[in-house]
Amino acid sequence: MILTKDNLKLGLVLGLTGPIIGLVAIYFLKFSSFTFIEFLDNFIHENRLITSIGSLSLLANAVLFTIYVNTHRDNTAKGIFIVTLIYGIGILVLKIFN
User: Residue 20: CA atoms inside 13 Å, Cβ hemisphere, count?
Assistant: First the structure.
């Protein structure tokens, strides 16, 4: 199975998709009364939403990272961590310049 491999590229892919899945889950759980485009527009333009939704979407990567570290697949965990840092810096920059 692909998720049992210890591979940096797999970690990068999982790290990229985790927050996106988290963002979509937050949309369906809390903001489904808006269209997805309206939700993304509000997320990008409201500082309080950038922090809360950005943190919650990165929580998906924290779960993935923990699973891969605990199963000693360190290269995959390293890829997840790298992408999480990039997402985190992007959220911080978005919040500062918004």
Answer: 6
- Distance, CA of 8 to CA of 12 (rounded, Å): 6
Q: What is the pLDDT of residues 29-63, one digit of tens each?
A: 999 999 999 999 998 888 888 888 989 889 999 99
For tokens 């985190």, the residue is 88
Count of C-beta atoms within a 10 Å radius of residue 61: 24
**What are the structural domain ranges in the chain?**
2-96
* Nearest residue to 26 via CA among 58, 53, 63: 53
Measured CA to CA, the distance from residue 66 to residue 63 in angstroms comes to 5
